[in-house]
Amino acid sequence: MRPYQKRIVIVWVITVLAFLVIVVRLFDIQVIKRAEFVKKADKIQKRDKTYVLPRGTIFDRDNNILAMSNETWSIYSHVKMQTRDRSKIARLCELSEKRVGFIVRRVPMGIAEQIEKEKIPNISFISEYKRFYPLGEPLGSLLGFVKFEDDATKIQGLCGIEGGWNRYLAGKGQKIVIEKDGVGSVTYTKERFPDELCGYNLSLSISESIQYFAYKKLKETCLKYQAKGGAVIVMTVGTGEILASCSWPSFDPNTYSDWNPSEWKRIEKDSLKNRTISWV
User: Fold this and answer.
1) Rounded CA gap, 99 and 107, in Å?
2) Whose CA is closest to 126, among 57, 77, 54?
């Protein structure tokens, strides 16, 4: 055998051996140790996250909505955002830059869509729900409000109807699998959950229109005579149904999150008190 033929045979043998080593290694990874590596990959790329489903809607006697859950989007980043990116988000959300950290909670869908069009790097969107009270202040002391935990896994009704009927109104937590891409951004398909996992709806005997006008007159009268507080109850004579239950001073449950912590003592003493109950 000539020298060049020996070299060809040697190269061929080395190539075959290298190929066999690769085949054996692939067989070891994909067949023998497949479950182990799948588990490691899932641990890095996937994680379970619990989302709270919508609370039940509160209606008046004529099926007008008194409290409802609106779908919003929370925006977050897994890395520190650059100053110009924070400025864009703050401008679109009408917030100060100091309030734009790693996450901005419960942004209306329209604003979230505008932010998405900006193509800001390293941000992701998560669907959450925000409680909305169409009538606002006239029903504040009666309905109460809800508190969102920081991790968005629990929504607790505080005082009023929201607190007293929380176990029925509260939506159940539901786990979904979140997947991360190569750069760590969260990518998943938003799921729609069965209605039976959402909170129960609640119908009150309250009339939205009577409640509004009763509260308006109560507030005007208290301010006119400089009263510290007042209460009005409107009832149906024949059945005793409560058509309006007003207490002043009250508060707007839509803006409770804007309250300064230093104001809580005054708010708890005055606005949160339902005088139609505590004064009876």
Assistant:
1) 13
2) 77
82 pLDDT more than 50 = yes
DSSP per residue, the chain: --HHHHHHHHHHHHHHHHHHHHHHHHHIIIIITHHHHHHHHHHHHEEEEEEEPPPPPEE-TTS-EEEEEEEEEEEEESSPPPHHHHHHHHHHHT--GGG-SSEEEEE-HHHHHHHHHTT-TTEEEEEEEEEE-SS-GGGHHHH-EEEE-TTSS-EEEESHHHHHTHHHHSPPEEEEEEEE-TTS-EE-PPPPPPGGGSPPPEE-S--HHHHHHHHHHHHHHHHHTT-S-EEEEEE-TTT--EEEEEEES---GGGGGGS-GGGHHHHHHTTT--HHHHT-
Task: Note the pTM of the prediction, 2 decimals.
Answer: 0.68
Burial status of residue 122 (CB atoms within 10 A of its CB: 0-12, 13-18, 19 or more): middle
- Angstrom distance (rounded) from CA 156 to CA 147: 5
Mean residue pLDDT of the chain comes to 78
Q: Per DSSP, what are the bridge partners of residue 132?
A: 68
* Cα gap 144→253, rounded to integer Å: 7
> Phi/psi of residue 203, each to 5°?
-110, 130
Cβ-count burial of 58 within 10 angstroms (0-12 exposed, 13-18 middle, 19+ buried)? buried
14-73 tens-digit pLDDT = 888 888 888 888 888 888 878 887 777 666 666 555 566 778 999 999 999 999 988 787
CA 98 to chain centre: 21
